Amino acid sequence: MNLDKLDKAFSNFIRSEGADDNGMVRCCTCGHPSPWQYMDNGHFIPRGNLGTRYHLKNCHVQCVPCNRNLSGNLKKYKEFLIQKYGPEIIEELEQESRKDVKLYSAPSPSYSLARYSS
Ligand SMILES: [Zn+2]
Question: Cα(82) to centroid of ligand 1, in Å?
């Protein structure tokens, strides 16, 4: 499975999903508004953990300074998650991240991508 392709499609989905009519979204940790194309898909638990790499509650729109320069701005990210999903979300994501996930090839390469590409 080509994770780069899946990452790109998933990122497009996360970043564009909440865009307004003008294509604008806000950073989940600092509120900075920007066209979704210039934002990142910010992971609370790092992408290296496959169990939460494509978890919708672990992935939200972030501006580049928060995601890259502040390494995810995790203190604010944690506050955002708790406000959005409740305090149990942190433990839930940590449990999910520890699961032994194996990615396998779908019958058609486009199958997995299709979920996030439309
Ligand atoms: Zn930000």
Answer: 17
